[in-house]
């Protein structure tokens, strides 16, 4: 267990907790705080056990907050993006919707999904555009604005980046 806290191994988060006798604080194995001396550390398998022993949760790694908190936040954000993809959205708009700062939102979202909310929104928009290219006679320009892009250049750039072709090439391939 000592090796896991030295390497900040997040795969063991929730499986055990480290409690520092000198500070009376307990942490997740992945906590990035300065490492205590080995002799000052006890290990616990349950939060209730460690709190009963008189330790308080670390403010940095927040071991008392389950990972599902982040999962719920990501679900709220993705749901919001899916339902509002065709509107002009800023990171601040998304952050306001879930009630946290834009910086915190971007950090958590990227940590959980490996991409930013903006990149996720672009994927949704391009996905909607591919559907419209296949199923309608709308022009590329109409589709661009229909799916929420604010400019044709950003539409073409995102579309090409994600599909490896232009909207017109995509439509002719699918035809």
From TrEMBL:
Keywords: Activator, DNA-binding, Methyltransferase, Transcription, Transcription regulation, Transferase. Its cofactor is Zn(2+). Gene3D superfamilies: DNA Methylphosphotriester Repair Domain, Homeodomain-like. SMART domains: HTH_ARAC (SM00342). Residues 75-173 form the HTH araC/xylS-type domain. This is Adenosine deaminase. It comes from Lysinibacillus contaminans.
């Amino acid at each position: 267990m000592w090796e896991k806290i030295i390497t900040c191994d997040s795969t063991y988060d929730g499986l055990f907790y480290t409690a520092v006798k000198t500070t009376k604080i307990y942490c997740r194995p992945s906590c990035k705080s300065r490492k205590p001396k080995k002799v000052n550390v006890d290990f616990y398998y349950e939060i209730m056990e460690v709190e009963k022993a008189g330790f308080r949760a670390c403010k940095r790694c927040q071991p008392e907050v389950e990972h599902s908190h982040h999962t719920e936040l990501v679900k709220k954000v993705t749901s919001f993006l899916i339902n509002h993809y065709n509107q002009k959205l800023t990171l601040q708009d998304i952050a306001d919707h879930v009630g946290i700062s834009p910086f915190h939102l971007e950090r958590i979202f990227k940590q959980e999904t490996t991409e930013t909310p903006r990149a996720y929104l672009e994927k949704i928009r391009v996905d909607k555009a591919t559907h419209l290219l296949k199923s309608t006679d709308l022009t590329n320009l109409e589709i661009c604005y229909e799916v929420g892009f604010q400019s044709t250049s950003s539409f073409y750039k995102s579309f090409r980046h994600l599909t490896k072709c232009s909207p017109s090439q995509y439509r002719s391939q699918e035809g």
